[in-house]
C-alpha cells in the first residue's frame, strides 16, 4: 500500500496488488447503497396503496396526503442520521457506520412490509408505518457520507472519480429497479390484489437481498486510518479552502442537483397532467431519463479521472444550463414522443455528468477526520430542504402561471446557482496539467 501526498494531506492510494481488494470494496459499498435507495424509494411508487392500508379515510385524497406526509417524514430524519452515523464513521470507521445503516434499513423495510393494516390492528398500524419511515430516513441519511468517503478511500488516486461515481449511479439503478417492479406488478396483478398486498411484494423483493448485503458489508476491508508509506505527487501546492467553505459550496451544488433530479422525476406526472400524453409515453420518459442518468454518472466519474474535477463539473453544467429552456419549449409545443424521450434523455445525460465529478471533488476537499459526517450532513440537508419540496414547487408554479414551461424556470435557477458554486470549487484531482490541458505523468519520489 502506497500513500500519496496531495496539497492538503496524505491520502491512501492502493498499489496494483490491491486492485482486487478495491473491486470488492466498491462492489460491496455500491450494492448496499443501491439496496438502501431501492427500499427507501419504493414507498413513493406505492403511496396510494400504502395510504389505503395504513391511513384509511372517508376521503381518498386525505388518505393519500397522510401517506405522502409519512413519505416526507423520511426526509426529516435524514439529517439526523447523517450527523450521527457520519460522525461515527469519522471516529470509528467507515465499515461499522455503513453496516449499522444497512442493518437499520433492513429492520425498517421488514417492519413496513409485514405491519398489518389499520383494519387489523387499528391505530397501531399508522404508528408503526411512521416509525418505520423515520428509521428508513435515519438509516439513509447515514449512508451517503460514509459510503462516499469509503469509495474514495478504497480506490487508487487515478480511479477515484470512477469509484465514487458508483454512488450516484447506484441511486439511479435503484430508482429504475423500483419503477420496473412497480410497472411489472401493475401489469400482472389486478387492482384489488395490488392494493391488498402487491406493494408488500415490492418491499419484500428488496428485503430478500438484505442478508446478502449485510454480510457483504460486514466483511468489507476498512479504509479509515490505514498505515501507508508516503509518495510525493509533483503538483503546485496551494492553500486548501476551509472545510466550511467547501460545505457551503457543496450545499448549493447538491441543492441544484436534487432540484434537477426531482424535477426530472416529476416528468411522469408532468407528462400526464400538464402535457396530457399517453401513460406508456409518460412512464417511458422516466425510464429513459433514469437509464441516461446511470450512463452519465459513470461517464462523469471516468472523465473526472482523465481531465480533472473542475472541467467536468463546469462545462457540462454550462451546456445543460443552455439546453434547459429550448428542450422544455420543444417538449411543450410538440408534445411528441421524440421530443419527450429524446429531449429529456439528452438533457439528463449531459446534466448528470457534472455531479460525479463534484462528489469526488467534495470528498477530496474535506479532511479525512470529518469527511463522512461533513459530506453526509451537507447532502442530507440539501436533499431534505430542496428534494422534498421540488415537486411541490413545480406543481405550484404550473398552477400559478398556467405555463407548461414552469419546470424549466425552476431548473434554470437551480442550475445557474450550481454552476456558480462549481466555478468556485478547487481542483482536487491528483494529476498534473499543462497549459494546453494535456494530462502529464505523476512523479513519485520521497517526500522532503
Outline the fold blueprint.
Layout: E1 2-5, E2 10-13, H1 19-45, H2 47-54, H3 60-76, H4 78-91, H5 94-114, H6 118-121, H7 124-154, H8 160-188, H9 191-207, H10 210-218, E3 229-233, H11 243-265, H12 267-273, H13 279-307, H14 309-334, H15 337-365, H16 371-401, H17 406-424, E4 432-433, E5 439-440, E6 444-445
Parallel strand pairs: 1-3
Antiparallel strand pairs: 1-2, 3-6, 4-5
Helix pairs in contact: 1-5, 1-7, 1-8, 1-9, 1-10, 2-3, 2-9, 3-7, 4-5, 4-7, 4-16, 5-7, 5-9, 5-10, 7-8, 7-16, 8-9, 8-13, 8-15, 11-15, 11-16, 11-17, 12-13, 13-14, 13-15, 14-15, 14-17
Q: What is the overall number of helices?
A: 17
Termini separation? 20 Å
Mean pLDDT: 79
| Strand content range | under 5%
The main β sheet shows up as: 4 strands, mixed
Order of helices and strands: EEHHHHHHHHHHEHHHHHHHEEE
**What overall form do the CA principal axes indicate?**
globular
What radius of gyration results from the CA coordinates?
Answer: 22 Å
Number of strands: 6
Amino acid at each position: 500500500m502506497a500513500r500519496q501526498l496531495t496539497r492538503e494531506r496524505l491520502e491512501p492510494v492502493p498499489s496494483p496488488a490491491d486492485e482486487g481488494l478495491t473491486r470488492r470494496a466498491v462492489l460491496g459499498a455500491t450494492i448496499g447503497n443501491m439496496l438502501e435507495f431501492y427500499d427507501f424509494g419504493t414507498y413513493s411508487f406505492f403511496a396510494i396503496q400504502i395510504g389505503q392500508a395504513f391511513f384509511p379515510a372517508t376521503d381518498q385524497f386525505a388518505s393519500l396526503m397522510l401517506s405522502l406526509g409519512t413519505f416526507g417524514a423520511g426526509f426529516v430524519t435524514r439529517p439526523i442520521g447523517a450527523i450521527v452515523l457520519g460522525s461515527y464513521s469519522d471516529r470509528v470507521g467507515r465499515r461499522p457506520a455503513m453496516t449499522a445503516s444497512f442493518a437499520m434499513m433492513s429492520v425498517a423495510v421488514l417492519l413496513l412490509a409485514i405491519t398489518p393494516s389499520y383494519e387489523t390492528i387499528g391505530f397501531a398500524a399508522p404508528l408503526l408505518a411512521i416509525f418505520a419511515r423515520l428509521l428508513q430516513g435515519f438509516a439513509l441519511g447515514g449512508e451517503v457520507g460514509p459510503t462516499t468517503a469509503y469509495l474514495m478511500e478504497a480506490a487508487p488516486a487515478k480511479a477515484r472519480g470512477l469509484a465514487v461515481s458508483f454512488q450516484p449511479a447506484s441511486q439511479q439503478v435503484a430508482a429504475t429497479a423500483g419503477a420496473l417492479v412497480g410497472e411489472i406488478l401493475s401489469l400482472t396483478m389486478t387492482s384489488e390484489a395490488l392494493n391488498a398486498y402487491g406493494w408488500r411484494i415490492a418491499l419484500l423483493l428488496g428485503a430478500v437481498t438484505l442478508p446478502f448485503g449485510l454480510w457483504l458489508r460486514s466483511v468489507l476491508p476498512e479504509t479509515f486510518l490505514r498505515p501507508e508509506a508516503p509518495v510525493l505527487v509533483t503538483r503546485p501546492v496551494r492553500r486548501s479552502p476551509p472545510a466550511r467553505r467547501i460545505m457551503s459550496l457543496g450545499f448549493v451544488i447538491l441543492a441544484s442537483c436534487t432540484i434537477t433530479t426531482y424535477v426530472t422525476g416529476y416528468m411522469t406526472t408532468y407528462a400526464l397532467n400538464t402535457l396530457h400524453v399517453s401513460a406508456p409515453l409518460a412512464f417511458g420518459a422516466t425510464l429513459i431519463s433514469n437509464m441516461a442518468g446511470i450512463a452519465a454518472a459513470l461517464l462523469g466519474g471516468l472523465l473526472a479521472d482523465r481531465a480533472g474535477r473542475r472541467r467536468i463539473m463546469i462545462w457540462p453544467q454550462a451546456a445543460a444550463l443552455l439546453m434547459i429552456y429550448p428542450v422544455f419549449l420543444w417538449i411543450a409545443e410538440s408534445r411528441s414522443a421524440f421530443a419527450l424521450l429524446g429531449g429529456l434523455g439528452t438533457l439528463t445525460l449531459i446534466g448528470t455528468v457534472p455531479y460525479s465529478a463534484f462528489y469526488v471533488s467534495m470528498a477530496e476537499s474535506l479532511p479525512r477526520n470529518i469527511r463522512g459526517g461533513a459530506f453526509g450532513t451537507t447532502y442530507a440537508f440539501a436533499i431534505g430542504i430542496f428534494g422534498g419540496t421540488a415537486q411541490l414547487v413545480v406543481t405550484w408554479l404550473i398552477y400559478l402561471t398556467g405555463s407548461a414551461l414552469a419546470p424549466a424556470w425552476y431548473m434554470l435557477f437551480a442550475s445557474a446557482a450550481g454552476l456558480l458554486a462549481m466555478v468556485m470549487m478547487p481542483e482536487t484531482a491528483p494529476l498534473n496539467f499543462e497549459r494546453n490541458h494535456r494530462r502529464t505523468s505523476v512523479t513519485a519520489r520521497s517526500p522532503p
